[in-house]
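Database export, one record per block. Field names are fixed; values are copied verbatim from the stored entry.
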Amino acid sequence: MKKVLLPFLLLFALFTSNAQEVSPTNSLRKDAVKLFIDCSYCDMNHIRREIPYVNYVRDVKEAQLYLRETMENTGSGGRQYSFLFIGQKKFEGMNDTLIYTTRPDDTSEHRRQGRTNMIKMGLMRYVARTPIYKEVSIKHTGKIEEEQVSDKWNNWVFELETRPRFESEESFKEFSIDNSIMANKITPDWKLEFELEHEINRTKYTYDNETHTKERTEIKFENLTVKSLGEHWSVGNRLSLLTSTFSNMEFNATILPSIEYNLFPYSESTHHQLRFLYGIGASINHYNDTTVYGKMEETLGQQQLKIAYQVQEKWGSINISLEGSNYLHDFSKNKIELDGYITVRIVKGLSLSVRGGIARIRDQLSLAKGDYSEADVLLQLQELATDYSVDGGLGLTYTFGSIFNNVVNPRFGNGRRYY
């Protein structure tokens, strides 16, 4: 009987000994900073490995320190990450903001390690006030050099891109290629963006023993010029040139001088924005085919008003934009769009996310006159008349259990995708 029970007794002893080893009895671990990280694209497994001297909690209300990471694109094509540290409970009132900027040619590993190092630096003032500071040491790499940085490109950044794609079946073949050239210069006072795009989509299909070939082409040039006028105002202009078989445009030129006011300072854009933009200009149109209004060419005045609200807080985030535009010769020819994405932490462990968009469309003046073939409709070769568009979705997430999640175990996969 003892021989039969011996293997089970050994297994029981093994599991109980492991349970004692991982139980949170260590006083240093118990008194470590309770950290909640609010980040959409963080590699949490990497962060937990690199920073083992804090307690990671799932609920912001349990945390002594709340950390939010936000990201904006820089003028060079890199990224600027802002890390907002907000003290809670014993650290109430101890707040800080740190900035980390990447280069456009940095790899994902460079960005990941740089962001993690910045989090380490921001944590030190809080860790120093706990007994676990004895387990942390600070050092430098010794690579500091005194060097005057010279920018031979004068803040200009260029990007070339090509995206060929193909699909082939017995009775259906499709080939498309998108090419683009971009040139940007962004300084505190000026924002200059130029982009040229060229798209070709060729479809070949067999139906009723007949072979048909359809093609859709589009060439578009866009320029944005913006001048800063302090912390709240900006003026600028949008210029676009277009030729498109899909939109029935042989040639289109649109110029839209605009002015923008931000209720909050632009320097606080990673935390909150409430921007009001108004533009008024003109559009010159030459069509491939006669439109449903009997036009082959026309010049139209138009105006646009856009309101954008963005906020990121401990309770969640809101991104909402409302945009309205119309042609000046006939105010009934207009378009109104509402887009939004909202994430809210309702109670401990429960969060709700809602995204959606709705548009009322009354400004399709370039629609070609006549009937569309079945291929034009199914292959989306021509723009179709519509009164509205709607899209959306929602998500509800609830997590429960231990408020601590310090352990990393990547076996059989990480369970969740990270960037």
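Remark 1: The first strand starts at residue 34 and ends at 38.
Remark 2: Residues 14-25, 414-419 have pLDDT under 50 and may be disordered.
End of record.
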